[in-house]
């Protein structure tokens, strides 16, 4: 897929001669970049650096007059043995696998449908985005009411249609709590996945399909041989986006479960440790750990993307 | 061309989403109808208003106030009156409804030395944690503090400094449906938890035929601060101590296990299964909607249930909470204080506002319009106040109050309480008390070290 050719090695002498001419615009270029770099340093590097620094201290929220001390890797040692944190990592990865899997398959189907031409396609494309446009906290609260066992519409419909024998407390019951929170995320984010994949589908030239038809390939063969391979870059971008988003999920879990043990995502536990308990140092070490876990996924994806591109 | 069309459609989608979210938000504000009841009474005048205006008129202060029930309506009304009389502008910001989140908000503001908050309402368990960041009110308000309940003033006095003024003092009470008790042949509300379970079961079985959503008993079971209050009442009323007694963790004992297991068995039987994610608002909603026979809540629910438009108006009453086999009825002390931030730029003007808000006239106004428990003894005895608030009848008002173990924990209270409510929530969701209570005990001991 890569169309950018590797630049031919430039002879050293020629390069030197061009420096004087080149230098001025280069310097100007750097000068113009400075404000942007300063902003990045201020909003991204500084907080990140500060978090890493804090993770080696015993800083507390309301320590009063007690000074903050450097404690080395103590926080990380505690974190390694923190079974609650381990549970949240497992739960969050489970959540990510389930939601990203469903969202991808459903999103691909929807993208294929709205990519074909039919009457009212524009309206369809707009309508399918509605769940994505609702703020997550609002959507989560809405679903919390809809899933309630006394006045929720989901149970009411289920019982009336004889799909359920009785009302169920989807959120409170540990057996169905993960499923309920996944369902809301899938409902909300599938349109986004569909949109990204749709963008990928639209750049596939139509004449490829025409040629394939002429050669006698059926629709299924066209999908496997043309659509899927050419969609690969879009798929990878989509999966990276969604995986990273899912790994740092906070709002749905917090609205649905509060701080219920065994139902906290990594971000919820980190937030409650830092803000509720006031353990800023320990919370920072957790943030760094979450950062590393997420980076791991990024590295895996990016490596995968590179190897398939070559 | 194609892209522009997409953009327009995206705009349409955005608009639709906005409408949806607004209507969801509007659905949450049904309380507006209750506000009309409170409108009948006028906010009291500010004493010495002219002198205050001369000194501090034109200053602007920010008050982080109430958001539960009719609290915000009252705050706005009183602040408006105060501004009108004194010229001090008060902007009222409601705090997050979950008290643990409200704590975090204040902790953030204080630890960053922010002057954006001048006065805030703080929970009865917070003075110890926030003391270093609060103004000593004793020099200016010490005299007025003498009017308030001694036990609460003592709670708000840290190392000899009065860091907060008592504002209103809650305690847990039992709401019950008088019409349903009569219908099912009961003459009096339940005395013990076992009575309550039996009565709730019978009423629920009977009512389910006409109302499939009916539940016998609702309370606050979500994993949040409110569950610590509920659990303390269950355990203390069964003779199982107060979680921490005399600096020692006592929560893991046979009486506590018995009552917690008994309570756990009721989940989904006489309560909605979803009660383990209920907070105050869901409890109030279920009871005032006619979907519950019994409810445990703070006194504020009385005012909402008694307004026109409530489905249970005239059909309910309140009493002390039931007790276990070996205990006495108790009520967890809740309640709120007003505290002035050390980082405020207008401390003197803010203290005048606190003086007004914690005066007998305002407490009387609050008790009648908002059914909050006055912390001023003479107001609590006032006839008009008692008439509006039946829970102030001597039999109920004299129930022993239990306090959460904040004094043993200071700044670590929040973390300790989280351990308690997470554990109790696990028990309610089906774990056995014999496996969870030892864990709670170990964690609390770790925190107190």
Folded structure, characterized:
- The complex is a heterodimer of chains A (310) and B (449).
- Chain A is mostly helical and 310 residues long.
- Chain A has a single domain (74-309), classed as MetI-like (MetI-like fold), CATH 1.10.3720.10.
- Chain A is built from 13 helices and no strands.
- In chain A, helix 1 runs antiparallel to helix 13 (280-309), helix 3 runs antiparallel to helix 10 and helix 8 (174-202) packs across helix 10.
- Chain A starts with 11 loop residues before the first helix and ends with a helix.
- The model of chain A is unreliable at 1-6 (pLDDT under 50).
- Chain B has 449 residues and is of the alpha/beta class.
- Chain B is built from 21 helices and 15 strands.
- Chain B has helices at 2-27, 32-38, 49-56, 71-86, 99-111, 127-130, 138-145, 150-156, 178-183, 193-207, 225-237, 254-266, 280-288, 300-305, 347-357, 360-370, 377-381, 383-388, 394-397, 413-428, 433-448, and strands spanning 60-65, 89-94, 119-123, 157-158, 161-162, 165-168, 173-177, 215-218, 244-245, 248-249, 292-297, 316-319, 331-332, 336-340, 401-402.
- A 5-stranded mixed β-sheet of chain B has the order 2-1-3-14-6, sandwiched between helices. Chain B has a 4-stranded mixed β-sheet with strand order 8-11-7-12, sandwiched between helices.
- In chain B, helix 11 (225-237) crosses helix 12 (254-266), helix 11 crosses helix 20 (413-428) and helix 20 packs antiparallel against helix 21 (433-448).
- The chains are: A mainly alpha (310), B alpha/beta (449).
């Amino acid at each position: 897929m890569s169309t950018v050719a590797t630049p031919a090695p430039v002879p050293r002498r020629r390069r030197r001669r061009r420096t004087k001419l080149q230098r001025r615009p280069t310097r100007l270029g750097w000068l113009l970049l400075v404000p942007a770099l300063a902003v990045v340093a201020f909003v991204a590097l500084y907080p990140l650096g500060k978090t890493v620094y804090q993770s080696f201290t015993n800083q507390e929220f309301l320590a009063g007059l007690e000074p903050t001390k450097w404690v080395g890797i103590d926080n990380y040692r505690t974190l390694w043995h923190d079974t609650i944190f381990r549970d949240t990592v497992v739960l969050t990865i489970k959540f990510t696998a389930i939601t990203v899997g469903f969202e991808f398959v459903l999103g691909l189907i929807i993208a294929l449908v709205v990519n074909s031409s039919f009457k009212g396609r524009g309206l369809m494309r707009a309508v399918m985005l509605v769940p994505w446009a609702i703020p997550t906290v609002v959507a989560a609260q809405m679903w919390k009411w809809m899933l309630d066992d006394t006045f929720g519409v989901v149970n009411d419909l289920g019982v009336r249609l004889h799909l359920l024998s009785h009302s169920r407390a989807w959120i409170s019951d540990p057996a169905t709590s993960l499923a309920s929170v996944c369902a809301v995320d899938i409902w909300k984010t599938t349109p986004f996945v569909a949109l990204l994949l749709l963008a990928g589908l639209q750049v596939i030239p139509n004449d490829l399909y025409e040629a394939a038809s002429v050669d006698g390939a059926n629709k299924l063969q066209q999908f496997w041989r043309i659509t899927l391979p050419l969609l690969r870059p879009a798929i990878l971008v989509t999966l990276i986006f969604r995986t990273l988003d899912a790994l740092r999920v906070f709002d749905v879990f917090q609205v649905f479960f509060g701080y219920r043990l065994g139902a906290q995502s990594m971000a919820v536990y980190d937030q409650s440790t830092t803000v509720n308990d006031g353990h800023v140092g320990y919370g920072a070490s957790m943030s760094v750990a979450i950062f590393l876990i997420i980076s791991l996924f990024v590295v895996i994806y990016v490596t995968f993307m590179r190897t398939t591109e070559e | 061309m194609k892209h522009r069309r997409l953009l327009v459609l995206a705009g349409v989608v955005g608009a639709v989403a906005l409408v949806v979210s607004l209507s969801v938000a509007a659905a949450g504000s049904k309380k507006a109808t209750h506000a009309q009841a409170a409108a009948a009474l006028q906010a009291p005048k500010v004493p010495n208003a002219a002198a205050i205006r001369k000194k501090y008129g034109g200053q602007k202060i920010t008050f982080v106030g109430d958001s539960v029930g009719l609290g915000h309506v009252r705050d706005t009304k009183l602040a408006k009156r105060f501004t009108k009389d004194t010229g001090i502008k008060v902007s009222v910001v409601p705090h997050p409804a979950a008290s643990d989140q409200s704590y975090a908000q204040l902790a953030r503001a204080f630890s960053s030395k922010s002057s954006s908050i001048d006065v805030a309402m703080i929970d009865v368990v917070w003075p110890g944690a926030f003391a270093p960041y609060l103004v000593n009110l004793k020099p200016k308000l010490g005299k007025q503090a003498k009017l308030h309940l001694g036990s609460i003033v003592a709670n708000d006095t840290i190392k000899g400094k009065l860091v907060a003024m008592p504002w209103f003092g809650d305690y847990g009470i039992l709401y019950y449906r008088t019409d349903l008790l009569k219908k099912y042949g009961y003459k009096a509300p339940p005395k013990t938890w076992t009575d309550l379970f039996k009565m709730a079961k019978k009423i629920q079985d009977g009512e389910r035929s006409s109302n499939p959503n009916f539940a016998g008993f609702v309370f606050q079971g979500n994993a949040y601060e409110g569950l610590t209050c509920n659990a303390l009442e269950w355990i203390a009323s069964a003779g199982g101590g107060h979680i921490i007694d005399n600096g020692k963790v006592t929560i893991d004992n046979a009486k506590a296990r018995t009552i917690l297991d008994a309570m756990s068995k009721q989940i989904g039987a006489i309560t909605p299964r979803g009660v383990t994610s209920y907070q105050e608002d869901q409890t109030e909603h279920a009871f005032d909607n006619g979907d519950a026979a019994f409810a445990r809540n703070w006194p504020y629910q009385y005012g909402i249930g008694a307004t026109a438009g409530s489905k249970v108006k005239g059909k309910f009453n309140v009493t002390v909470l039931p007790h276990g086999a070996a205990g006495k009825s108790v009520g967890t002390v809740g309640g709120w204080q007003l505290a002035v931030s050390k980082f405020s730029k207008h401390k003197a003007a803010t203290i005048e506002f606190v003086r007004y808000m914690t005066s007998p006239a305002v407490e009387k106004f609050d008790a009648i319009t908002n059914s909050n428990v006055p912390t001023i003894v003479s107001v609590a005895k006032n006839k008009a106040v008692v008439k509006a608030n039946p829970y102030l009848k001597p039999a109920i008002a004299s129930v022993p109050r239990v306090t959460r173990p904040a004094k043993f924990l200071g700044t670590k209270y929040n973390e300790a309480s989280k351990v308690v409510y997470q554990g109790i929530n696990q028990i309610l969701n089906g774990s056995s008390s014999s496996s969870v209570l030892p864990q709670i005990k170990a964690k609390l001991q770790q925190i107190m070290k």
